[in-house]
Design a protein that fits this description.
Blueprint lengths: L3 E6 L6 H13 L3 H4 E4 L11 H11 L2 E6 L13 H11 L3 E7 L8 H11 L5 E3 L1 H19 L23 H15 L9 H7 L3 E2 L2 E2 L1 H7 L14 E5 L11 E5 L3 H15 L2 E3 L10 E3 L3 H14 L8 E5 L3 E7 L22 H9 L9 H11 L6 E5 L2 E7 L5 H7 L3 H13 L4 H8 L3 H13 L3 E4 L7 E4 L15
Parallel strand pairs: 1-2, 1-3, 3-4, 4-5, 8-12
Antiparallel strand pairs: 6-7, 8-9, 10-11, 12-13, 13-15, 14-15, 16-17
Helix pairs in contact: 1-6, 3-4, 10-11, 11-13, 16-17
């Protein structure tokens, strides 16, 4: 979430302590620091620019002007305005929110021009008197919270139901709304037709809040969702690593933007374009079937869940990371308190974090409402001969892991693979196969030792030998785990 800038204006020498106290207070408060940062001229590095230019540019950039008025007026030439008054006038002209705090001192102790500035400000806004820094920060806190409330940024509604700041009905795509209505009617028998007037359709879909699109509406059918400050992090980051660890440089890295539906489609296409696939024959149907190394339905379910049920108030984005041995989908947020990772493996209720986003996803058949998504994901992986997906909480992120092969770390433990055998497994997952010669070079061993170790892993059911004898022979990871009673002999 992009933070609003607070510009502090005052005679610097008199208010040195107050200026620093305000900056420290805002940056240290758990609520205010989510929404604000503070500009202090004292923090500006040396630069070849006139100070007045820097001041006024920052006034133009800020959302909230805070004026501290006291005894002194500030440096100025005779009959000219001080920087403090110039900044106040600039904030007025630019229609900034102005909060003025008046230090309690005797009237006769105020500079005459400061008295005039206070009179001018008092004719336009209500200023607040204060005694000491604790009183000042308390008054500022109340004013800033009131500002957040008035601008709709302190939400009493859930994120998906709250109005999207600065969005209007014109930010809703007529084409995307028509697609949503047509698809919902075809897939679920939705009552509205594609020609339904826009406002009526948005109202029926619960995508308006007091006549303005809510976050769900912009995310689902907005023209450009990520241009709104509260939705910047709604993008999806997709990364592909050739190995089994996160390492730079990243071979393939895409950041996808768009509506929630577009994010899902783009992320799924990214993953499926990187995994192995095989094409069957027309004898299996009118069209040659395509099967993927990872079940597409399971991949789609993991990504849909991340986009649909993530915590959109978080500054993090959904991350989809494809490794040589697994797919990880990172979703900002945590499970609802009523659910646990164990409960996701048995029938459980559907508890969407963002119901106004989940409902249209249901209408176009991207999800079901019965809480079967994780069960379907598990079933698809098991049917493909893969381990069940893993569900876990990591550092404020909900992570779903789909394994690209059966030889997971847990399976290696159960098979009793030693360090060398584990290293070989990682090598083959990355490079897909190994020859006897490559094994000798990798582990600096003789041909006899390489042969013995490769054949040992073949008997354990980890590897399968391919090709003819001699130079044409190579070993690859067995596609499926051998069941009890199966022989671990090579396949030729």
């Amino acid at each position: 979430m992009k933070k609003s800038i607070i510009f502090i204006s005052s005679p610097q020498k008199e208010f040195r302590d107050e200026r620093r106290a305000i900056a420290d207070y805002v940056r240290g408060d758990a609520l205010l620091r989510r929404f604000f940062d503070v500009f202090l001229f004292e923090d500006v590095p040396a630069c070849d620019r006139p100070p007045n230019n820097v001041y006024l540019e920052e006034v133009d950039r800020c959302e909230v002007y805070v004026g501290l008025f006291g005894r002194t007026y500030g440096s100025s030439k005779a009959h000219e305005k001080s920087p403090t008054e110039i900044e106040f006038d600039r904030a007025t002209a630019k229609k900034k929110t102005r909060l003025v705090f008046l230090k309690r001192v005797a009237r006769e102790n105020r500079h005459p021009m400061m008295r005039n500035l206070i009179k001018k400000a008092g004719a336009q806004i209500v200023w607040h008197p204060y005694d000491g820094i604790p009183d000042l920060t308390s008054a500022l806190y109340s004013s800033l919270v009131d500002y957040l409330d008035r601008t709709g940024r302190l939400q009493t509604l859930p994120f998906d139901a709250a109005a999207c700041d600065r969005a209007t009905v014109d930010d809703i795509s007529a084409e995307k709304l028509r697609w949503l209505l047509e698809t919902a009617r075809r897939e679920r028998g939705y009552i509205l037709v594609a020609s339904t007037p826009r406002t009526e359709a948005l109202t029926h879909l619960r995508l308006l809040e007091r006549g303005r699109p809510n976050h769900a509406g912009i995310l689902l059918i907005g023209t450009e969702p990520q241009r709104f400050r509260s939705l910047i992090s709604s993008e999806v980051k997709c990364l592909h690593f050739h190995g089994t660890e996160i390492r730079k440089p990243v071979p393939s890295y895409q950041v996808f933007k768009g509506t929630a539906f577009e994010l899902v489609d783009q992320a799924v296409d990214f993953v499926m374009s990187k995994v192995a696939r095989s094409v069957g024959t027309r004898s299996q149907g009118p069209q040659a079937p395509v099967s993927y190394e990872l079940p597409k339905d399971a991949v789609t379910e993991a990504i849909v869940n991340a986009v649909c049920h993530r915590d959109y108030a978080s500054g993090a984005s959904v991350q989809v990371m494809l490794f040589a041995d697994r797919l990880e989908v990172w979703n900002p947020g945590e499970l609802p308190p009523a659910l646990t990772p164990e409960l996701l493996r048995v029938p459980h209720p559907s508890i969407p974090r963002n119901p106004l986003i989940a409902d249209p996803f249901f209408l176009v058949r991207y999800i079901e409402k019965s809480g079967t998504g994780t069960l379907d994901m598990i079933a698809r992986c098991v049917e493909a001969g893969l381990p069940e997906p893993e569900f876990e909480q990591r550092a404020g992120q909900w992570v779903v892991t789909l394994w690209r092969d059966w030889l997971t770390l847990d399976v290696m433990d159960r098979l009793g693979l030693d360090e060398t055998e584990r290293k070989l497994a990682v090598y083959i997952k990355t490079r897909k196969m190994i020859t006897n010669q490559a094994y000798q070079e990798l582990f600096k061993v003789s041909k006899a030792t390489a042969t013995r170790r490769l054949e040992s892993l073949t008997r354990k059911g980890v590897l399968q030998r391919k090709g003819t004898t001699g130079r044409g022979t190579f070993y690859e990871l067995r596609k499926k785990r051998l069941t009890k009673g199966s022989k671990g002999s090579s396949d030729r």
